[in-house]
Amino acid sequence: MTNRKDIKNTETKNDSTRRKFLKDSSKIAVAGAAGTIITPNLALARSAHAFGSDTIKIGLIGCGGRGTGASIQAMNTTSGNVELVAMADAFQNRLDQSLKTCTNNHKDKVRVPKDRQFVGTNAYEKVLDSDADMVILATPPGFRPLHFEKAVNAGKNVFMEKPVGVDAPGIRRVLRATEVAKKKGLAVAVGLQRRHERAYRETMEQLHGGLIGDLIHTRVYWNGGGVWTRPRDAGETELQYQMKNWYYFNWLCGDHIVEQHIHNLDVANWLMNDYPVKAQGMGGRQVRTGKDSGQIFDHHAVEFTYANGHRLLSHCRHIKECWNSVSEHTHGSKGYADISAGRIFDNNGKEIFKCKEGKGQRGGHQQEHHDLFADLRDGKVPNEGEYGAKSTFTAIFGRMATYSGKEIYWDDAINSNISLCDVDALTDLAKDPAPINPDADGNYPVPVPGAGAKDIIDWEISGGRKKKKKKAAAKPS
Ligand SMILES: NC(=O)c1ccc[n+]([C@@H]2O[C@H](COP(=O)([O-])OP(=O)(O)OC[C@H]3O[C@@H](n4cnc5c(N)ncnc54)[C@H](O)[C@@H]3O)[C@@H](O)[C@H]2O)c1
Question: Which end of the chain is more exposed for a tag (fewer CB within 10 A), N or C?
Fold first, then answer.
């Protein structure tokens, strides 16, 4: 457990300590870049056998854009045959569209007859009951902890999209299930595809090896124009509307700092081979003001501090016609790097490393599936659950900082018991109430740093500091 005193002390540590930290972390990071471990006792685990050239059957839960893409990428893998055997979605039309797209891409590998197509919030259970060897979890992240835990309990290997949760209780649930998966010998892959891209891996190796000396600070950005909105249809319930328009509701999405910026924050954590201990930031809504923009901010800026004193500056913005960048950069005593471009420079601006693979040639979404299926066939058991959960929590931690406007600490934040929604209890989209509701004018409650918004997340607004218990008054003698 890191407290304020520990951080202050480490901030004054000298360069040799930092250099040692980086050398040590470089060894760990290179060995663990793909997160692959060999299970110690293959006989213990049903799924830890080498699939070899056997057909690997997959089931898809969450048949939207990414779930469809991930299923196609799994079937594209060249290490052996992969077949899609079951599908589940909350909505019939999403499942139908996904099935059509998958079939158009892999006619001979899609074996999903009507009795293996499941619709509704509990449809995922039917996919877990099927004979799929691996499931792809690609619903909005609010459901991920529930689906991941149940998938591991059902003995399935898992590929799950990032983020893997939206609140601290969900992240703790994912961390617990990750440990169960390890014991059962089940593979856990997380859709943080940069970790599988050659350009990132080679650049990280150089940085971990000390090419720019001691790392001083890091900057990461996801600044862009924003994402889709899906308009309200006549007759749909509030819950159906929120599920369809999930990006704008924190119980489903976690805000865009969690949904998108996680990729860049994860790169920083990978670089540091650690997670921040402290955060403070600011954010708000400048243009996202309409009734169709739910409750999320349109910009966040956070300063994170790691235990060794390293600062990470993070920006994410959803505002059109501003400076856009999706990138990660770090600065060291002997130079600096544009990690996302795979380029490293000395302090005079001379390029000292350039990755051969340029932006746009990387194919991380495909590579992560090549790596996963090759491992499964070899009897290796990748487990990316821990960094998937902790990098997701880094983004949630950032959101807590910008919503509250306070300086907050990881150890308090990760122990928060504020759950944004009891998703286990949702069974009927047409009848269940939505966990958050608009006011009479159709506007949803939005956090106001430093002040109220208690309806949303009390803990985040309070900054997570525990209230001191009042001393009991002395009893009269
Ligand atoms: N790694 C990446 O680069 C990347 C890129 C895009 C999206 N993603 C992630 O993939 C996930 C899905 O994003 P998307 O763009 O495909 O969204 P999407 O809206 O296209 O798809 C989500 C699907 O999940 C379904 N769904 C919602 N709740 C469900 C439930 N309880 N049970 C079954 N189905 C349910 C929806 O109906 C929808 O079809 C998100 O976590 C997102 O962050 C990752």
Answer: C
Measure Cα distances from 105 to 11, 60, 62, 226, 258 in Å.
53, 15, 18, 29, 31
Residues sharing a CB contact under 8 Å with residue 289, sequence separation 6 or more, in sequence order: none
- Whether the bond between 169 and the residue before it is cis, its omega within 30 degrees of 0, is no
162 lines ligand 1 (CB under 6 A): yes
Q: What is the pLDDT of residues 104-118, one digit of tens each?
A: 999 999 999 999 999
Strand ranges, E, within 116-237: 117-119, 134-137, 157-160, 188-190, 215-224
Q: Give tens-digit pLDDT for 236-286.
A: 999 999 999 999 999 999 999 999 999 999 999 999 999 999 999 999 999
Phi, psi (degrees; rounded to nearest 5) at 235: 85, -10
Cβ atoms of 108 and 407 closer than 8 Å: no
In ligand 1, the atom with minimum distance to the C-alpha of 66 is 16
Pocket test for ligand 1, best of 60, 61, 66 (most atoms within 8 A of CB): 66
Identify how many contiguous H helices and E strands the chain contains and give both numbers: 15, 17
| pTM for this predicted structure | 0.89
Question: From CA 264, how far away is CA 194, in angstroms rounded?
Answer: 9
Q: Is the pLDDT of residue 42 over 80?
A: no
Which of these, 262, 251, 235, lies nearest to 392 by C-alpha position?
A: 262
For residue 124 and ligand 1, the question of a CB distance below 6 A is answered with yes
- Beta-sheet pairing, 157-160 with 134-137: parallel
Joined tokens for residue 54: 């056997």
